[in-house]
């Protein structure tokens, strides 16, 4: 009778277990993409959220034409960009942060707060969803801001921050001014990540 080598059997079992973790942990990133309304609070001590219609895509980003902040660009463009568009009739600025590279297993949210200096802070948050996976992918974050108190044609100060809750404190991704008189714009934040799919 032939006996299996115990070392080979152990290696085979460990390999199968690792493959199962990869398949089950990253197989359906849709369950860990956008946060349901009221699902959880990201920053308990934060000022009131003044953003409207905040949404986060599933893994892979929003489908072209699904953006409320203008065109998203070529599909093969992996750069992280903050795209904005001002609608003077509704006094609303729509923001789309495209190609944010994050772990596949997380719950995500977006909000806007007005800080003490008059800067609109767009806050993106990534919180583990019962642990992390061994994969990263691109997410899109979008939100709208009513600026009816701002004079038409004026600039607004904006700061984009991100908090990956299991990696340290909130950090600044980009800050600057947006000239509402231009109507729309696109700010390249980073050249993209080769780790994301």
Q: Could you explain the architecture of this structure?
A:
- The structure is a single chain.
- With 197 residues, the protein is mainly beta.
- It has one domain.
- 11% of the residues lie in helices and 41% in strands.
- It is built from 1 helix and 9 strands; from the N terminus they run H-E-E-E-E-E-E-E-E-E.
- The strands form 2 sheets. The protein has a 5-stranded antiparallel sheet with strand order 1-6-3-2-9, with no helix packed on it. A 4-stranded mixed sheet has the order 4-5-7-8, with no helix packed on it.
- Strand 2 and strand 3 form a beta hairpin.
- The longest helix is centred in the N-terminal third of the chain and has 21 residues.
- It is elongated.
- The N and C termini lie far apart (48 Å).
Number of domains: 1
Tell me the fraction of residues in β-strands, as a range: 35-45%
Total E-strand runs = 9
Coarse structural class: mainly beta
Helix-strand layout with pairing:
Blueprint: H1 6-26, E1 51-56, E2 80-87, E3 92-103, E4 106-114, E5 120-128, E6 136-146, E7 155-164, E8 171-179, E9 184-190
Parallel strand pairs: 5-7
Antiparallel strand pairs: 1-6, 2-3, 2-9, 3-6, 4-5, 7-8
Quick structural overview:
With 197 residues, the protein is mainly beta. The chain contains 1 helix and 9 strands; from the N terminus they run αβββββββββ. It has one domain.
Key attributes of the depicted protein:
five-stranded antiparallel β-sheet; mainly beta; 197 residues; 1 helix
